[in-house]
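Open question from group meeting: does this chain pack into something compact, or does most of it stay loose? Before anyone orders reagents, we agreed to write out a predicted structure and look at it together. Recording both the input and the output here so the notebook holds the full record.
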Amino acid sequence: MVAIIFLATSILSPYPGFITRSAHAACTDTAAPSVNWENCRKRNLIMDNFNFSGSNFTRADLSASDLRNSNFQKAMFFKTNLARASLAGSDAEGANFEGVVASRSDFSNGNYKNANFLKAEIGRSNFSSSNLENADMSKADFSRVNFFNSNLKGVNLNFSNISRANLTGVNIDENFSLEGAYMFLTRIEGLDLSASKTLKQWQIDMACGNEKTILPEGILAPDTWPCDFETDN
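Structure tokens returned:
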């Protein structure tokens, strides 16, 4: 009998003589506030209008998921894969998106006040009509992102790539910062940047403004304005 038991446990365990116990699989936990889906593969979810407040999605794969109109307040998205996902209309105030990968994703009409997007990779995504007040968006990739009509008061875009991003119609204040931001063909038509203390001439020379763009004292509009987007590749 002892031999039979030993044989069975040897088959079940990678270490002969030891019984393998199934660890708690957080990936099977039901969606709820403070759920822990760290490192879980949850692609193509359809979970709009859920309460995920305080949840942990660190390094999880939520790509191509429908997470619209959900509560993500203070949720953790550290290095989460949100590529082609939709968080449109969601409330993610105070959430941590540091290092998130979210290309071609939809963040429109959402609340991301005080959120952290440090070193995020969010190229070709949509933040139009969203509240990003006081968000840290520094050292990140926001190339070709649409920020049209968003609240960017107090937003820190220092040293981020915002090339070809659309900043028309945004609401900014004296704390909105573009220090060192890469602004190749960034659309700033009609934007009042007069209060900026860190904006440099080389940034404006690459950007796309018009006669309604207001620049800080000492910064001049380049002769290339307005840009010809019909010939832009």
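Observations to bring back to the group:
The CA atoms of residues 43 and 164 lie 29 Å apart.
Confidence is low (pLDDT under 50) at residues 1-25.
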